[in-house]
Amino acid sequence: MLKLPQKYTEDKKADALIASYLNGNILELVRNEIVNYETGRGKEAQEDDPGFCNAVRDFFPEHYSAAKTGKAFLGLKALLESEYEFVPELVMEYVMYSLIQMRIEAADRLGMRTQEPVSCQRDYVVKALRRAYSDAREYSDDGEDLVRLSWQEQLERIEDLHYYEDTYFWDFDFMLLDFYTEDELLDNPVLEYLGIENIGDGGGRFMLPPEWLE
């Protein structure tokens, strides 16, 4: 399960329901691509299957090795299905971003909605949000700066994929993969500043500062 960049309420149960819902949205996008491949080819997707690697290739950075795409894609699925929280490797965040963008673009093109209600105990989540947020936006004393969203707006940001940037991603370091290969990036001194560490097999993971998790 994804470790999300923010907690929405002081209610642990409500936050767990929100996290499960958001994780499920990404997992559905990943599973859809796998099912499409397996249905079209009549065989199970395998990490070393060149056909499957090519089928998911467009979700990866241009310079990413095609031979590694299958393993990374199925690895993301396995982590999303796990009960343990994780912060994705950079390339997995890139895949998530690509899948969400594809879904939003298709929905906008076809006039489809991208907002889906929280699927489990939505009334409980709404009550928790109403306790945590006001009925109207809150602004600074001078009225210039937005301080806090209303509970309705916060719910919309949870349920609508158009707000994915704040919902799913801690930052956008993964976009560096558009300009560097993994090897080039992992040898770059900027990684220490960004908090990215080499975790084997050529991967890069954004390591969260401990104070962010308190």
Brief descriptors of the model:
disordered C terminus, 9 helices, two-stranded antiparallel sheet
Give me the secondary-structure topology.
Layout: H1 12-41, H2 50-55, H3 69-81, H4 90-110, H5 122-132, E1 138-139, E2 146-148, H6 151-159, H7 164-168, H8 182-186, H9 190-194, E3 196-198, E4 204-206
Antiparallel strand pairs: 1-2, 3-4
Helix pairs in contact: 1-3, 1-5, 5-6
Biggest beta-sheet profile: 2 strands, antiparallel
Q: What is the average per-residue confidence, as pLDDT, rounded to a whole number?
A: 85
Biggest sheet strand order reads 1-2
- Beta percentage is 5-15%
Q: Span from first to last CA? A: 19 Å
- Helix/strand structural class: mainly alpha
The total of beta strands comes to 4
Question: How many separate helices?
Answer: 9
Run of helices and strands: HHHHHEEHHHHEE
Unreliable parts:
198-214
Cα Rg: 19 Å
Shape: globular
Percentage of residues in helical conformation: 40-55%
Describe the structure concisely:
The protein has helices spanning 12-41, 50-55, 69-81, 90-110, 122-132, 151-159, 164-168, 182-186, 190-194, and strands at residues 138-139, 146-148, 196-198, 204-206. The chain is mainly alpha-helical.
